[in-house]
Fold:
Amino acid sequence: MQTVQPRSLSLRLPRVRPGGVLPILAILAVLLVLVGIRQPDFLAPPSLMSFLGRSAPIILLAAGQYFVIVSGEFDLSVGSLVTAQVVVAARLIDSDPARTWPVVLLLLAFGALVGLVNGLITTRLRVPSFITTLGMFLILVGAVYLWSDGAPKGGLSEEFRRFGRRAFEDVPVLGRVPFALVVLVVVAVAAVLLMRSDFGRTLVAVGDNPRTAELSGVRVWRTRTFAFILSGLAAAVAAILLGGYSGVSFQAGAGLEFGAITAVVLGGVALGGGRGAVVGAMLGALTLELLFALMNFYGVSGALRSTVQGAIILLAVAVSATRSSSR
Amino acid sequence: MRRSMAALAAVTLLSLAACSTDEPAAGPSGSASSAAGSGTGDQSKFFVQADYDAELALLDAAPTGPADKPWEQVLNPTMVDTAKFKKSGPHKICFSNAALNNPWRQVGFKTMQAEVEAQKSRIKEFVHVDAEGKDQKQIADINDLLGKGCDALIVSPNTTATLTPAVEAACKAGLPVVVFDRGVNTKCPVTFINPIGGYGFGHVGAEFVSQKMKPGGKVLALRILPGVDVLETRWSAAKVAFDKAKVDVVGVEFTDGDPAKTKKIVDDYIQRYGTIDGVWMDAGAVAVAAVEAFQDAGKPVPPMNGEDQLDFLKIWKDKKLTAIAPTYPTYQWRTPIIAALQILDGQQVSSPWKLPQPTVTQDNLDQYLDAGMPPLHYAMCGCTDLPGYPQRWK
Structure:
């Protein structure tokens, strides 16, 4: 194995505040220019709005994942949670519009509950969160399969699906504003406010150095558990939007946990916790989606997406490792 | 500590990515729009010209058997003797099922269970084992069933080549074997039951799409997965039709039969090419997702094919689509039970047992629409006269 040379590497990296959103904004700008050259129509308001609407679920998941990662943990269960939620919603609604709202509330409660269980197992039983949430991932996949005999049943009502498919029509300048985008903006504002509150500061402090946080009177386990609950809630909202977008599917959430984590590290959030902004994580998700859109415009096979995600994760971990060792 | 955490995280994530993002290996997708009709790639190794010709001929053949019971009809029968399997009942019939992992199989299996119930005076026990879409499990399942005292064995193979030895082993055990739906590469079962087959399905859809779209337009072909004979032959017949019509096949993509993935793929193609002039698919379960991708992008829905799943028939009528639905009728799930009982009676059966494969067109669409049944139900279930209809299928 080669010895890394942190000093020379870090010299070549741009000098920016660690965890800031400037690098991701720069990448986003470059991608926008490239997209603009290749497919100028894409930047017109209607297609841009629709792109933002379609990207809303992964951006929400990135925000949820951010809370967990910045507190020093991981949530690998969100993808399977999204699938489970879509399958459960279809079976419970069974095409009956009257059941839409009760099921939406139930999904939110279910998401929060899964987050609570993940959080308590991680913090109270001291199971590393990769293992906890990987276990939850397998449990949910298996449970959904058992419950549904391996194929989706029932159907989603149009009322349910409008969150993911419909839009405010005839909006001045923008034309068509997807409901998903409105949901995203509301959640994004709430997330930013939350991170500016005392809870946000505590969350980052816990991720940066749990021992110090504990000694200064923070209940680390409670803070981290709350982060998992937020991730579960984000998955529930994402599931409502995704189920609405594509209908009943057994793979609605496949691979999303990976996409969300890639987005978070791309957004400058340190794996291991303590550094990075929630806006950065959400911009990371947007950048990732834009990168995939660009690959699509250039006719790059969809199979390469996972390769790109893998490369981003490796690069981000390498960069953060060289940074922390050169401190 | 943090560094090792990050490293562990990376390892976990990468391994997770490997199992959760099941994009197909770079296949013919994205092979672009260079020359007309060049996007269809090489012909499948499953393509057999003689079978193709025979199936296309069967599309016009007149079936023998009762007209109101297409699951008992046979196209061009060739009878085989079954006297050596004659046995007095009531019987124990065993069924090794590839999977129940899509609505087509769910509807089919319910139809089969109802047929068993209808024949309960002659069947004392019906054993069903679900292989959950795994070849290895199905091989073990068949092996287990051989020791369970079955009077007849029905097999719906998961994949063609891998399951062939298991079916051969079952034949050697001496009990009558009936294969249906997907085939195996051996003639040892007493009979192989299925409708006309993949070539017929693929051809009907591709002919329609290439005739209804503008000449030289862009077609997107959607396939479920490679390696299953009925699906491979659907695509290979479509390929022949598209190459002949010189349409521009801009993409051949695998969807895993999943609507979320399908909608994303179709949306990507609409974004990349501005619009798509025709959509062909090897199975209709994701047809509605494809329609929605065009609707949500604000584009007209191009000529396309689906299948007899009710959600597609409904959106076809409501949105006045230019569409066709070749079928692979779920009523074929009744036939293996009927065949097994006939074989145990020592009656001659046709081998292969080719069932008719009707097509839903604009003209007969209304007769297949049924607002009372759920969206994922299949119109050709042939189940309306069976015990428990309609609750069992809801």
Summary: Chain B touches chain A through 59 residues (CB under 8 Å). The radius of gyration of chain B is 22 Å. Residues 2-20 of chain B form the longest helix (19 residues). The first strand of chain B starts at residue 79 and ends at 80.
